[in-house]
Amino acid sequence: MNTSWTRHILAISIISLSVLGIASFAGIAIYMAPSADRLETSQMVFTSVLPLFGTWVGTVLAFYFARENLQSATESTQKILSRALNPHTTPVTDVMIDMSRATKRVLAPNESPEDVSLRELMMTMQSSGFHRIPVVDAAGIVARVVHDSTINEYASGRVQDPSFADTIADLETQDKFRAAIRAIAYVGTEATISDARVALGNVDLCNDVFVTASGLRSEPALGWLTNTDLAGIAES
């Protein structure tokens, strides 16, 4: 016999017999009660049986509907994962962080990246829960990417308390920090995840890849892929 059909028959039979049994016991309890207590007994049976009946109805609905929804969700997830697990064919546009929604520091028209306060960047990262923040100009072109680990290392090497009147200009007085926040890779919108990984590896100290229309540094960033994002996508 078909397994699905057997499951349906079994479920209907169990529910039907259970409802019949509950109704029978309720009727017997009311019938056997003394006349003076019959109203009270009826109320007690009603308040006891109704939640039980509701539970059975809920079980049936869950069986017939939640199961289908779960199957559909599982199939959708498998389709997404099957694409995500193929770095050689999955375009970066499918997995990138959209820059229109990314937490970033946008420069004012006459402001340079060097003017940006490290304290401001650190507070923004702490409030947003992120550990890095891109600094972009008004057109959306990425100028720097500052990580909290870079600021923390810079601060720990200070003799005086960097109560953070310090700016990116101060940070860049040390070559290693200057190199770290300028280590940025770029790919075009036609690039795949594998292309992004190659671009990341081709830039020393790089932890961030930005997606632009043609893969040029001089173009506005459309999307962003971190080294963590790229590492989390398994090879197919």
UniProtKB/TrEMBL annotation:
InterPro entries registered for this protein in UniProt: CBS_dom, CBS_dom_sf
CBS domain location: 99-163
Record key words, sorted: CBS domain, Membrane, Transmembrane, Transmembrane helix
PROSITE patterns: CBS
Transmembrane segment boundaries: 9-33, 45-66
Protein name (Swiss-Prot/TrEMBL): CBS domain-containing protein
Organism field: Nocardioides pini
